[in-house]
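Onboarding guide, step 5: your first structure request.
Type a short instruction followed by the sequence, for example:

Predict the 3D structure of this protein.
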Amino acid sequence: MKKLYFLFLIALLCTNAFAQRKGYWDQKVDYTMVIDIKEKSYQYDGKMKLLYTNNSGQELKKVYFHLYFNAFQPGSMMDYRLANIADPDPRMTSNIGTKEKPVYQSRIATLKPDQIGYQKIKSLTQDGAGTTYKVDGTILEVTLAKAIQPNSSTTFDMIWEAQVPEQIRRSGRNSKEGVELSMTQWYPKMAQFDEFGWHLDEYVAREFIAPFGNFDVTINIDKDYVIGGSGALQNPDQVKGYVKNAKVQSTKGKASWRFKAENIHDFAWAADKQFLVNHARSKGGVDVYLVYKPGAKTTESWTRAMEYTTAFFDFCGSKFGAYPWSTYTVVQGGDGGMEYGTTTLVTGERSLESLVGVIYHEAAHSWYQHLFGINETVDEWFDEGFTSYIEELAFQHLFKKNQSYA
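The system replies with structure tokens like these:
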């Protein structure tokens, strides 16, 4: 009885918290991007068309974008924070002292010009008219050519160039496991504007919040690469890895990968020439892709993890409501595990138990962070709390009952 009462209380709280309030509104973004990768220099050119819909009921004279890669530069706020807090993330620091008396130095502080990350805006127009803008760390402030009126839309056209930083935190090139490109927080992303105003937190390797919208992303990259990412791949028969005997189409040695995703608030991808793609469909119809580098430390665990991953989506669908997208992709990359729209990047050299655990946790975010868009900067307890509950419930039900993993 106590358990039923507790579950009823939780359901009631969720209903009250997420029922749309009178006057509730969301901004909307629709991204169309074309990305040209320069593999040898780890740089890329980007073109973006962004349809921004202002549902706020307020006139907007400015908008803001996040330029997350700018954090990976000496002197950035993330660099400063690492050098001045008592417990810096060991993944982002180096011990220049001794084991007995460690002295930690930010790894960002030692990056050379060809190792840093950056996103440089080359041009930005609004409905064809020029805008003025300035960059402050990881924030791009844009003074509009014309104010965006309530309940109206405007179109931004942006051209930018970027450099992928050394792998330090989540994003970057050449991870410890040898994944060449972990592309998260990689594009100029429209900042969140809601009833509390603009959310303009500098990037210091914490969580994110952003408006929901649709993504149409084309990535032009050397034909030998395989990509795993958000959304549904539109041309699997024209690229490497997804279709047996695919006729890879390339222009001057480049293949074009096109992904589409609807109603998500972030788009991530990773690429490597050695990636292998496994695909299966859950009983509920979710297409699950596991994308990883085969080897002695990965192949067995990633192969066996597929049955547990598809079962997870069916289990959660029966307990928490159907997964609302058609695909979910788990990609080896990054430096741990982090959730993004319809995908996650996780480190891959794990035991089966560890791999299934991290997949369950990151995929479980789909029922909270990627449905509700929770601001984890202030309400991390909500998203991580429920996500951890789902992870453990599914793990005990689907994995622990089968002791053959040992």
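Each response can be followed by summary notes, for example: Helices lie at 2-18, 77-84, 299-320, 352-364, 369-372, 376-400.
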